[in-house]
Design a protein that fits this description.
This protein has 514 residues and is of the alpha+beta class. It folds into three domains: 1-64 and 190-265 and 489-514, Periplasmic binding protein-like II (D-Maltodextrin-Binding Protein, domain 2); 66-171, Dipeptide-binding Protein, domain 1 (Alpha-Beta Complex), CATH 3.90.76.10; 273-481, Dipeptide-binding Protein, Domain 3 (Dipeptide-binding Protein, domain 3), CATH 3.10.105. 29% of the residues lie in helices and 21% in strands. The protein is built from 15 helices and 17 strands. It has helices spanning 2-21, 54-63, 113-122, 173-178, 181-184, 233-241, 254-261, 291-300, 303-310, 341-350, 368-379, 395-401, 420-426, 440-450, 455-472; strands spanning 33-38, 68-71, 76-79, 82-87, 94-99, 140-147, 150-155, 192-194, 204-209, 224-229, 247-248, 266-281, 317-319, 357-363, 383-389, 407-413, 476-488. A six-stranded mixed β-sheet has the order 13-17-12-16-14-15, with helices on one face. Strands 8-9-10-1-11 form a five-stranded mixed β-sheet, with helices on both faces. A four-stranded antiparallel β-sheet has the order 4-5-7-6, with helices on one face. Helix 11 links the parallel strand 14 (357-363) and strand 15. Helix 8 runs antiparallel to helix 10 (341-350), helix 9 runs antiparallel to helix 11 and helix 14 packs antiparallel against helix 15 (455-472). It starts with a helix and ends in a 26-residue tail after the last strand. The relative contact order is 0.15.
Amino acid sequence: MRKILATMILSAAILSLGMLGSSAVFAEEYEDTVYIGAEISSLDSADPYGTTGMESQVFTNMTHMLLTYNNTDTGELEGITAESWKDLNGDGVDWQITLKKGVHFHTGEEMTAEDVQFTWEYCHPDAGNVVKPISAAAYVDSYEIVDDYNIIFHLKSGMYDFPTYLDTKIYSKKAFDTMEPEAAALVGNGPYMWDESLQQVGVQYGATRFDDYFEGTDNYPTKHLVFKCIPDGDAIVASLQAGEIDALLCLQSAPYYITLESDPNINVLSRDGAQSFYMGWNWTSELVKDVKFRTAIAKAINKDDIIAVAFENGVGASPSYNFCPPTGLGYAEVNAIQYDPEGAKALLEEIGVAEGTKLTLIHYASMKKVAEVIQANLAEIGIDCAITQMDASNWTAIKSSKEGYDIFLDYCSYKGALLYNYNRFFQENGSSNMVGYYSEEFEQLLNNVLSASSYEGMLEEFATMQQFVADDVSVIPLAYGRIMGAALKDVEGYSLADTTNWMNHSKLCIPKRG
């Protein structure tokens, strides 16, 4: 009841502001509402730090703007609500961030340096306030507010790529001072705002245009963006073909892409993505701790089989050999382990692993075909691999338990910062290191990257780290996913990001239909 009441108060405040402060006037040339299909049963949260769920991240890309954005298409770091950033002393320790003026939250207050400091402190990994913390906050020693539009981040050590970690969404401190946290977290500064009146749990959720958006509303003619919850893949494709929805949040299966590609009423899109599909280890297993065993398993996996069977011969992905995708900053070619089943058998014999040794592999539904290929590959080298499908909603807890499995299948998206995946997956106590990995050598390599005396030096050390992860078989890269999507022919403004988490549908619009 407390959460419902807080949300109702927030919705009333925001909608009141929207009616009083509205300055945008659009001709009757666009449809009032665009309907987007989301392959989920309900939205976890409209709080950008309230869940790790992809659908919530996509939704809050419209409601909460970033400080900076790492544009992997151009290789440039773009300021969104940050105007500029400066390494004050040339040592990567003290960074002054200047904010754009006139950025307003949905409740009317202007965003200031105080909001930035509050967000980073509130979302610190050790604060325990949010589900999805700002991992880079752990690198900050202190903050210094110069004025409303300037804040200095004093880091614990030099980080020449620190501005790439500023791709963070900002909370309103005043909202948290005056509202319940659950409601305050929904207050953003984007072109659209959470609208409680559009929510029907298990059916739909939505956002309404914020007419006082700081960049104006010329590029946002749609008044309401409504996401329809359609958890079944076949049903969501059928809904698009029937015109019951106008676009898809994303396409999660290559066969659906092929189906929709032949429909004359639909536009389908695809692009190279930053998603890395991989096989991971339960590091409490004695077998797993032996690098020769891990290498043998890596040699046994035929990635071409995986692409052919699970990703429709490359429609949905391409083989990968480096945990860092080609779109990632600092990507380096590595000497990777190649498919060699005879070599795998020889290694297993060398370390005394008997034929018929049993392994348990866990996965969630969308990785079933990948699991089946790996099961067949391992059978060829004498490993009896049992595969078990798990409930995706409990996936994190299952992996964290480190019980009932030896290996698992998962994917992760790569963001702009060099070490985004490497420190969270492989660093001791990293936010995604829930399977017990620890390597003293990795920790030293990480320190080498962080203590480099220039950005160029960081890139060199990062290339060395990538090779170590490949040699150590810390994970087995399997495929780089392609991002796929679809919309009706008359939908404008539909585009794809290189990872689903950065999809942004705020510019979707439809010319008036007859």
